[in-house]
Design goal:
Layout (H helix, E strand, L loop, with lengths): L8 E4 L5 H9 L3 E4 L15 E5 L5 E6 L8 E2 L2 E4 L5 H19 L4 E5 L3 H9 L3 E12 L13 E4 L5 H11 L8 H10 L2 E7 L2 E11 L2 E9 L8 H15 L4 E7 L3 H9 L3 E13 L1
Parallel strand pairs: 5-7, 12-13
Antiparallel strand pairs: 1-3, 2-6, 3-4, 4-6, 7-14, 8-13, 8-14, 9-10, 10-11, 11-12
């Protein structure tokens, strides 16, 4: 039996690899794609982004973990050609990526949300440790609850002109690990089915961004300015979103949040969201 990849080489990815990488991703070769607003190949040309190349030029595996424009590092991509040993691919690629991070930014932390059990096992053996856990919740119109809602805060659709204020709220409402940069928020707005802001006295005090998937709607982001929390603004945003979705015939909605985000969990429970059995670890490696 030929040992696929026996004489393979590890190198930094190039823009010219885009076609091969697209084919690699299309072949169900992906163990991990970061659940961010930018697609995996957005990071092509940024470092560290390494590929494993066979002697005939075939890309066997790829790993990317560049920092975003706020300096936050997530595992963006890990893909392996079907049939090639996953553990071997990880070992070949993770070492140069880790070394690159160590050489270019001491104290760097690499984060990942591990939704794949095989990847979770590999990461744990490589020194990643759990720092948090994410749960999924689902909502169905047939079992929904509808709490009382303040009618006075104004809701309107988000525009690009709102991004600076939305970013300010995002930075204040979330811990650094979960914050989105203005560039990411603009990308999110471009992908959104419905994005809205809540106004109090003409000022932006909260927002939500939602998308669609084959199962229904997905609440991707909801935040209220910390000083305005507890005043029903989150309820107003979520009520407006669910009305918009059901008016479009979308009767199932999902949302993810941290297991210890008690205020968010309390908000979703008011509307009848149910926590699903599975939860996913957020893992971190300190370079």
């Amino acid at each position: 039996m030929v040992d696929l990849g026996q004489y393979s080489t590890i190198r930094q990815a190039r823009k010219s690899d885009e076609y091969q990488l697209k084919r690699l991703l299309q072949r169900k070769a992906t163990l991990h794609r970061h659940l961010g607003w930018h697609p995996s190949l957005f990071w092509l040309g940024k470092q560290p982004f390494f590929v494993q190349e066979d002697t005939d030029g075939t890309i066997l595996s790829a790993l990317a973990c560049p920092a975003d424009d706020a300096g936050l590092i997530w595992l963006r991509l890990f893909a392996v050609l079907p049939g090639y040993p996953v553990q071997r691919a990880w070992q070949r690629l993770w070492e140069p990526a880790r070394d690159w991070l160590a050489a270019h930014g001491s104290g760097s932390e690499v984060n990942t949300l591990a939704t794949n059990p095989e990847l979770e096992s590999i990461l744990t053996r490589s020194g990643f440790s759990e720092i948090s856990r994410v749960v999924s919740l689902s909502w169905d119109v047939t079992s929904a609850s509808w709490p009382s809602v303040r009618e006075d805060p104004i809701i309107r659709e988000m525009t690009l002109e709102d991004i600076s204020e939305v970013s300010r709220i995002d930075q204040a409402a979330f811990q650094p690990l979960w914050q989105n940069t203005p560039d990411q928020l603009r990308a999110a707005l471009g992908e959104a089915f419905y994005a809205s802001i809540v106004l109090v006295d003409g000022l932006v005090r909260g927002y939500q961004i939602s998308t669609l998937n084959p199962q229904g709607g997905h609440l991707a982001r909801l935040a209220v300015e910390p000083g305005m929390q507890g005043q029903g603004l989150g309820v107003r945003l979520l009520d407006d979103l669910l009305e918009r979705l059901t008016a479009e015939g979308i009767v199932e909605v999902s949302v993810n949040t941290q297991m210890d985000n008690h205020s968010s969990l309390a908000l979703y429970r008011k509307f009848g969201f149910l926590i699903q059995e599975d939860s996913y670890p957020v893992l971190r490696y300190r370079v």
